[in-house]
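RETRY 2/3 - previous attempt timed out on the joint model. Re-submitting the same 553-residue input unchanged.
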Amino acid sequence: MQLAAGVDVGSTQTKAVILAGDGEPRILARALVDTGAYVPRAAELAFHAACREAGLDPREIGMIVGTGYGRYRIAFGHAQVTEISCHARGAHFVFPETRTVIDIGGQDAKVIRVGSEGEVRDFVMNDKCAAGTGRFLANAAEVLGLDLEEIGPLSLRATDPVKLTTVCTVFVESDILSYLAQGRRPEDILRGVHLAIARRTVSLARRIPIEPAITFTGGVARNIGMVRALEEVLGLPIQVSPDSHFMGALGAALFALERLERYETSS
Amino acid sequence: MPCVVGIDVGTGFTKAVLVDVRKEHPEGEIGRAEPPVLGRGIVKTGAYLEEAAERALDLALREAGRDRRDIVYIATTGFGRYAVSFRDLQITEITSGARGARWFFPEATAVLDIGNQSTRAIRLDAQGKVSAFKMNEKCAAGSGSFLMRAAKYLQIEVEELGELSLRATRPQPISSVCAVLAETEIINHVSAGAAIEDIVRGIHNSLADRAALLLRRVGIGSDGTPQLVFIGGVARQRGMIAALEERLGMRVRVPPQCEFTCAVGAALLGLHRWRKLRSEEGVQRN
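RETRY 2/3 succeeded.
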């Protein structure tokens, strides 16, 4: 059996996926760790955790591909592929009809146009400003004294969303505090926060043609409030896989498997 | 003893000053060391703007040994100027900053004001009138709140930043244009073993770069040698002044108690208005 792994070293979290080849690739294990300050260690921890989960010895994995901003700092990887290609590939694997990928991670946001084979046709990206990234949501949650997991579902209970005056992650803190002081409900504030990020993401996306089907990947895709806000602003349905967070790692593992197959046929 | 009040309700801090109405307060008169101020008060603004204005005013009255009955006129400025219901007059922070800067430095032709949430570049004509200004209030990079956050990441007090930065020998580059994303960069510098003073100077350099861009948009830095006055709380940091002087290639002047400059400007403009009103009343009475 061919075994391959993908390790996605993100700015905030590091993800690893192990795939079994032979026919349709199957996900054997997933693992997630905080990236922290020491990137090589995070990659190792995630990879070993995934191996343990799969009941495999790390030496049994034939090919490891790294992706994400820290991909060149993975000591044990065989190759590196950009996270743009990996998200496109992963999204295409899960939803073959995907033509647009919206990937919102901890510190950046990307919109990728995908071809029918899962190849990248175009992309736009914001990695200059925390507005429109997971960091913005994490900050908003912190100001409200809530867990990151709570804010999405809570935002769906809004009846009268606030209008934020700023999208700067720093300044929005005082915006939120003054809405609280005015007696506005946390759910209405949160809905305003989600809509503000959705508008920013969609204006980014409009720089390349948005073609359905749209797949939402990255850690922020687990936030149901964000999914609904994006759908509202786009006026289109969005598909989200339970593995959305692992999409980059999955794409990397698919590339690894492909290389492994190529390698084995040539030798 | 009657006095006029200037209150600057900023996003981070609220500042109040009292000036004596019997003094003439010509520009530059009291020298650059001693503002025309009887008392000062500064408090964190928080969410309740009017209450912050009250608290800052009470502190200023206490320092001056006056009480509310001595107040004849109140001028407000800053983002929360309309929230103060007991005001007589409100003035934009552009006008009050220009007036305050010019009082300390009568030859000033340019003002840079870096506050907690916004940065302003103001150009003055020879008479001290505002001829152009640009403002950044959309993004925290380049504002004082960036420094507050940076101090937090570095686990040092904001007050320490200015002196630390002066001791830098190898300033570290901060390439990020976002105050939040710069956190990762700062942490990377720390974990790579960079000296704190070199990181702090890098942060000041990045702020100075953004200030220089804003100044250039009102034509400062590209022509002649304007007399630039740097006001607002960030001007307290000597490392920031050094970074600015290096970037702009010109001398930068900073008034004493620089965070009160807009409040002083508001008080002086308020005083002017109060005198005018009184002389009109006098004319009517005669």
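Residues 90 and 133 of chain B are 19 Å apart (CA to CA). Closing ticket.
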